[in-house]
Amino acid sequence: MPIGSRRGYDSRTLSAAERRRATMSMQDVLSLCMIVKNEERNLPRCLDSVRGLAGEIIVVDTGSTDQTPGIAANYGAEVIPFDFTIVDFAAARNRALDRASGRWILMLDADETLVPSSGAILERLIAFDENAGYFLRRHNRSSDSQSPFTDYVVRLFPNQPNHRYRGRVHETIDASILAAGGRLLRTGISIDHNFVSDPELRRRKNQRYVEILKEEIGADPSDDSRLDFLAAEYHQLEMFDEATAIAERIARARPLDPRAHFFAGVYHLLYTKDLPRARADLNQALKLRPRYADAESLLQLVDERERHARPR
Hints:
Blueprint: H1 16-29, E1 30-36, H2 43-49, E2 56-61, H3 68-74, E3 78-81, H4 89-99, E4 104-107, E5 112-114, H5 119-128, E6 132-142, E7 149-158, H6 174-179, E8 183-195, H7 199-219, H8 225-236, H9 240-253, H10 258-270, H11 275-288, H12 293-309
Parallel strand pairs: 1-2, 1-4, 2-3, 6-8
Antiparallel strand pairs: 4-7, 5-8, 6-7
């Protein structure tokens, strides 16, 4: 079934009466929560995109030195200063959740805007009032002319005390929603994400995030969820040996996860050029998931490279 049409969630199924009821109640039930710093250029576009949907706006400011707090206040937001001396994005987001009074939470960043056609779908989801967190389709566009890409992020969820973010960086709320008995579902709601990308700033940010993630992993070695983000940071820094080592660690931590073995195989094949280990990883992925098309395709590439490597 197409995204956005599950159980009648597509905005086209809304009757006029349902739309009126949803609109009348939206501002009573929806809180928009944000964390910001020096976002005076982006914040008005973000807040304009959700005008009329959220009856409450909670903005946690982590140290702005521009007009961001005043702009937020002019839109009727409650602005909460937050000490960000110790980088902890989950704590900042959770501070916003602590203050929110709506039954539902919409979490946005200042450089994101809600696509206009998504408002009706959002209204419908809230009217159903399910115990679920919803993935929004995010269209990412960088200022450095890289190709746009799409990902999915959980940004709409019920306001419950046990729904809280975790992770000082790459913070997520998914696990807490599942732990509380909720589900995670995709929707047709879309947001645009337009961000400035400076390669040197990005590199320094990657390096900071590596250190923070290593601290988190050291504090709780049993939590392998942070390893995925650490591998991604190493990859962006083009530290492929380090990324490969983390991919191997993920596969050991999740021996029954075919994707973990597949990605270890990807690193051994494409980055460390270790064909025997790549073959072993990909075969294990196929053992766990027969007819795993991506693994089968890469095994063919392993065969081809081994043929070329044989002496003639």
